[in-house]
Amino acid sequence: MNNNTKLRISDRDFSKRFPKNFLWGGATAANQIEGAYLTDNKGLTIADILPGGKIRLEWLMEERPLEILADTHTYPNHVGIDHYTHYKEDIALFAEMGFQCYRFSISWARIFPTGEEQQPNEAGLAFYDSLIDEMLKYGIEPVVTISHFEMPLHLAKKYKGWQSRELISLFERYCDVLFTRFGDRVKYWMTFNEINSAFMMPLMSLGFSTSGNNFQNPKIFQALHHQFVASSLAVKLAKQKMPECQIGCMMIAAPFYPYSCDPKDILYAYEIERIWNYFCSDVQVRGKYPAFIERHLFENGIDIDIKPGDLALLAEHTVDYIALSYYNSCTEKYPTGNENRVGGNMMSGVENPYLPTSEWGWEIDPTGLRVSLNQIYNRYEKPLFIVENGLGAVDTVNPDGSIEDDYRISYLHSHLIAASESIKDGVDLMGYTMWGCIDLVSASTGQMSKRYGFIYVDKQDDGTGTFARSKKKSFDWYKTVLQTNGESL
């Protein structure tokens, strides 16, 4: 060898934005699109009692009766976008865009209406059989979320949700049925959607409401421990039944910026970020409780009931990849009581003067996505999967039926560029599924008018509409992105 020959550290191709095997697609959740909330023996879920409109946020933040109050409230989740009957049309549209994968959730209450049945509901299994087969017909890889804010309501009422250890065995039975029935056709799984959302909206995530500071609430930490154990049991069972499968955890990701270089701001932001971004993933990825949580629990007088074998189970059965949602960053300032706070995806922070906001007040920060991906990957060195990212906005249908959603194209373009830059940074990014690829009911506000999709659904906040599907301008834009594997960006 010539002594002047220069060796490269790696053979990565920096001229390409995304690797050849990158998984492109879209994402939804059963409770936000399916409708048919009592059809074919489906049971009620937590989502079915959440009212439509901005009052939903009050229900999620306060303790409320777990009942449907039809005389005074509307419940858009009950009809969704009627995906239960339109799924073939919807999957055909996804295929036309060129989806390589589609992330969806299975409603626990379609399979076990109360969560306690000994035998699953065959009609529910048959629906998901048909849905998966329809995807595979077009070469679309199913990506399944096992639990996406769809706990059977009965379990919340009887057991107070994940506060009870009883839910672990019931969840394991549910997973066993899913893996047995669909394991020959589904390779990619994830256990609990946005597991760290428990700190902000535990009703959806854990099946109960609380008041006060959730970072100091023993019920939250106990319920999360039960979910950690259930997640590890799901990983164990998945690997036994489907040795080649990939099963991951799923979290809300957001970098936390200090408002200033004041060390108090820096430390305050850092301490919140550790709990929010890394506690749940440390347990599921590293297989153990992090030291900073041990201190947090001790200083707040929180004792978790941990049974013999729990910690060994967590250590032995960790996840294969980390899925994440990204919508916004957060900025934090040491609290003085005078902060102007802004909202986000189940979180809030002080106003960042350098960032624009969406119509719903969520700050738009594509650079934050690159920061988060690098932070998470450098901590764990496990493959990452962006399974939610998108812009909720009011769309206007023009007289000719067209929808010019250039704002959505701009948002997605900037975030995909940020994702591609993270890949060049060395992040192992598996794929990208845009959230709400077809319009759906907003989880946080229960509105149809807060639209995300490439596909418009004629359904309005007042309940009117035909459910007709139509393509927005972003439909063809995303189609080109997929056709070129991101090189058109």
TrEMBL record:
GO terms for cellular component: cytosol. Keywords: Glycosidase, Hydrolase. Belongs to the glycosyl hydrolase 1 family. SUPFAM superfamilies: (Trans)glycosidases. The keyword Hydrolase applies. InterPro entries: GH, GH_1_N_CS, Glyco_hydro_1, Glyco_hydro_1_AS. The active site is at residue 388. It comes from Thorsellia anophelis DSM 18579. This is 6-phospho-beta-glucosidase.
